[in-house]
Amino acid sequence: MPADTQKKRTGRRRWIIAAVAAIIVITLVVGGILIRTHNESALAKATDEDATPSVDVITPRHTAPQSVLRLPGDVQAWYEAPIYAQVSGYLRMWYKDIGAVVKAGDLLAVIDTPELDQQLRQAQAALGEAVANEKLAEVTAARWQHLLVTNAVSRQSTDVATSDEAVKRAAVAAAQADVDRLHALEAFKRLIAPFDGVVTVRRTDVGALIRANGVSDPELFAVADIHAMRVYVRVPQSYTAQIHVGMQARLRLPDYPDRVFAARVITAAHQIALTSRTMLVELEAPNPDGALSPGSYATVEFELRSDPHTLILPTSALIFQQHGMQVATVVNGRVALRQIRIGRDTGTEVEITSGIGPKDEVIDSPPDSLASGEQVRVAGHHPAPPNGGAADMPQPGQ
Amino acid sequence: MWIVRVALDKAYTIFVMVICIVLFGVMAVIEIPRDIFPNINIPIVAVVFTYSGMLPADMSGRIVYYFERTLTTQVNNVKTIESQSLDGYGIIKIYFQSGVDISTALAQTTAVAQTVLKLLPPGITPPFVLSYSADTVPVIQLALSGHVPQVKLFDLAQNFIRPQLASVAGASIPSPYGGLNRSIMADLNLTAMQANNVSASEVVTALEHQNLVIPAGTEKIGPYEDYVALNASPTEIDKINDLPVKRVNGTVIYMRDVAFVHNGAPPQTNLVRDNGDRAVLLPVYKIGTASTLSITSGVKSRIPRLKEGMPKGLNISVVGDQSGFVKAAIDGVVSEGTIAASLTALLMLLFLGSWRPTVIVAVSIPLAILVSICVLWGMGDSLNTMTAGGLALAVGILVDDTTVMIENISVHLEEGKNLRDAILAAGKEIALPALVSTLSICIVFVPMFILSGVSYYLFTPLALAVILALLASYVLSRTLVPTAAMYLLTEKEEKDGDAGPPRRRSLYRRLVTPLTRFQQWFERGFKRLGEAHSRLLEGALGRPWIFVGAFLAFSLASIAVLEPWLGRDFFPHVYGDSIALHIRAHSGTRIEDTARLCDEIEQKIRQIIQPKNIKTITDNIDLPYSGLNMAYSNTGTIGPQDADIIVTMGPSHGSTLGYIRTLRHVLPRDFPGTTFAFLPADITSQILNFGTPSSIDLQISGSDEAADHAYAVKLLHRLKHVAGVVDARLQQRFDYPEINVAVDRTLAQQVGLTQSNVADSLLSVLSGSFQVKPNFWLDVKSGVSYPLIAQTPQYRVDSLSDLTNIPITGQGGADKQILGALATFERGPADAIVSHYNVQPVVDIYATYSGRDLGSINDDIQDILKQTAKQKPQGSSVAVRGQVETMETAYSLLFPGIGAAILLVYLLIVINFQSWLDPFVIVTALPAALAGIVWALFITFTPISVPALTGTIMCMGIATANSVLVISFAREELAAGRDAVTAALKAGQGRLRPVIMTATAMIIGMGPMSLGLGAGGAQNAPLGRAVIGGLLFATVSTLFFVPVVFSLVHRRDQHEKTDQDPDGHPA
Asked: Which residue spans traverse the membrane (chain B) (predicted)?
């Protein structure tokens, strides 16, 4: 009997042990699997949440983007007159050096012209002779006229005498003209400033031989009127349409790196040069302090403006696709890709000519793979940066 | 057993052998290189083309493709060719078939580079060709910062520090990151050039003609021969300003009139900051067989000397020093091994109950390990987490041979033999079984040798270490153990043998009474365990079919139910003490803005990670100055919008993984439009990722790049929603902002200009003259030649208008033109990088994983690929590369490998038992071992990984070895005429002690490893866990299941025998 109970007890104990073991095993299995499924679903949720990209949105801005056209220009004086010698000779003295400010009529130099003087004297002598001859012919003619009345002489002889008088008178006129010419030439011994301005060239000196044989010799002096300057710019054909008379421009000169000069388009050639495909445009630049010098090289900056009501977006918002340019807009937390067309591009901003409206929220710096309809989290909203185009205008002194 | 006899006769030989082992072993331990991993000898040849200013698409089309195609025809044994074409750089990496002669490959590649050179764009220089291996990773980096200008920093790093460090064996040092590359800059003044009617090419030509490097020669005057030197190159930089450029109307235009030549640097294209200070980073790579530790210590030992020659205020700090991690990892494994060995020895003391045999065991374990280390050293292997892990793994088995021998000697002593006879008899008796069990453990490791790629190089040294230690242990148990037994066991043991149980009567009992008591208590406990075992075994033998059925059902059910929940990884995650973060802003973001973004991100990081836990934050923005750096490392940087931020943690930081998780959540929300990815920061993950910046690389290759890209975007969307996938991103960017300048050639021709005039002008303005017309200026004081570059300062050209206003000058007085007059400008997208794989364009989706196992993620990826197969562009193919690929390959080889191991072991035992059936009985024990492994991994939440599989293989070996002991005992009993049930019972009882002893030793030995403590401890933990779980079940199986199956198998045998006995046919 006790052995029997013993056996029963061990039997029961065995069962209990087996049951406990089974429970432990099942708990471990079920627990392990539950924990894993829970972890996995939590992870899946977290992954889905993290897969939603965060974006910054911006709204497009109305402004006229500016771009700058920068062209090389030549600065020239308002008037510039090179002064040549009309008479040959030697320079007796010059009175104005380069840089001298002159008034119209100021004496620049005097030329010694002994040859001319001699010619004048000779011409004067010839004139005297002609006058004398004329006088004689006049007397003779009068006499013959008188005698003809009395038929003392033949008509023929009288006509001869009268004609001779006319010839002699003409000879006097000729001699007088010669003298006058030489007198005029004598006046060219004095070189005179033609207008108010600055002496920009002096290419002669006292005692220099001066020959008046035309253009092959350089000018002796040049005088320039620099109260205002004319700036000539060759505008490439592609830009000519945007340049119009009255347009303001800025001049920058290498000699005044910190200074900007104002200029205004006054006229244009309205012809494209065949060799360079450029149009000559003339600008006026006031030069009150004489800082601008003729012959200078200048960079001429034209500001090209466009329609002030264009929508502007920073270039960072653009998405390039094979089928054109797009932007991503956010509508109710979802992405909507819009096809856009862009107008001008300043490098940092672009004009949007179609595709979005001023109220649209556009994703800035869109992630590399946005699809239409994708959920996004809007992290921040900014207006488009107002000074996006500032980099366009380099500050003087840079 | 002749060897035992020889050992007993020639004891001195054995002692000398031991001394030699100790001597060479200690030498090996001191000398053997220490590293994190074995050398991964997968040779890679990298070819780096540099052509500054060449856009990626051109680089790909005009240089890289050409080179790659030639490569395929002229270089043998190429496995794969990968290339990256970036702004100014083309990097081609060539992977070879295994076993290729790398010097031939290198020579052939270099030959190709020379061949194609003439056909490439003008002015290109021959590429760098360098070879390295898959485990070439940065092991230490020097950061130079301080009150020294950036130009100086770079100059010091490049020209003074780098040559000094080059003598460190195994160190490869590419160019420094960051800083400014000192050059002599001729800043072109566009306005002045236009005013003087001088073109950029005229300036460059003038530099070329006036700054010469041409020798003059010698002249013999009288009795002497004099050198004649020419002032061919100005010795002072300022003098370059006085070089004449050209003559116009009698006026000489000098360099200074159109440019300003000065000491400077080209625009910064690589920015490094160390805690916000501008710095220069000098990375040191490990190359060849030198160990990480020797390289880092070599570099660090040179720093004090380097500092002496440096200017005041310069700080040289060490960043990303991997030696601490490596040392800690090895130390961790070594201490695990030591603890395991000590625990095992203690366990032996407990089981054997006497210090003498324990001493023998305790001596033979280290000796076997020393032999193994010695041979590994001789074979050129290093002491690393793998080999050390193998040795730690072996410790548990090493005791086996010795204890079996000692146990057996005691048994024979107890039978009353004298010591020598007892030893000889014991040696003879167990020679074969011990050999079989040793061989069966060795054989299971054979499949490790069929692995390929990284896995092969990682795991074969582990297998080798185990096998070597086991073989050494076997030999020692045949030689040293008998000899030592002869000397140590002496008469006392003999007397003890006479006077009852020998293990209870130690001479030192009085000294160690408490221990002895404990031992006695243990013995009593063990005895009770034995009784319980006998009872249970009897019960099981009573209902064999139920037991076998239930046991098998439980095992198989465990495997079937639990295995799917385990998950698969290639290698366990290891987290070091640094975080590497890669950020990518909007395509084309300029370096200055990326730097500002980095500042903001770093501020955020400092909010999340306590500043006291941060040692340094280093960032590295944009591509390095030298293409060499890109050949070695790939963090995914493709341009100025990319930056790497490396956070080095202080000594007592929190969990790196925890920080990464928080940052992953916070950063994308706070910085919209920026992509974040966490890169492998520690040396382990870097090596395992094979130089790629992510563990998953979904690669779409095909000729239609646009369609591939569109498909990649679709895949990316799906991939981002796969649980556990993090940092998914497209590596290739197709939206790099580009301004297309379309010159109207006819118009240009009409105004007297050609495309080349435009190109020349653009080049000198935008990227400098150096690429097309390289010129150098020698600093005679320092002996360094610096490039002389004519370029327009970047700040002078900083808007689209500036671009349109670039003057274009032709040769000889053509009219002045600006670019805008000749060309139209259109904005368009450009490729920021063009990648090829096997000479085909590819798009890569990089991703990594967290919180889930790689195997399940790969399954999901495969599902996605199947679902989207229809959308795949015609002719394109998709491959999953990276760690996933390595893992799949390893698994596809390891699973059959385990099968093959079992088969091999089976065949071995067939030879041993000369029977087909008994070995089968042994094999039936294996499902239980597998079930145990599955259970251990399941309850510890450890995914299956290659280390776990290694543990599995190990388990197979030990389980078999133990079962062999049981079965051979049972066969002896059977042969002695007992019936199968009795034989099985006897065998179970008789082998209880050794089996429990071996298994316990092993389990205890694996204990420290399975905890996965310390740096890099996580990597071997699955191995320990698998072994422990597997052995627990395998032991039960060996002690119950195997005898029962044996009894079942031999039951009919027994009947036949009793039937046949009268006929005179003994079994």
From this structure: 12-30, 36-55, 333-353, 359-379, 430-450, 456-476, 545-566, 893-913, 920-942, 948-970, 995-1015, 1027-1049
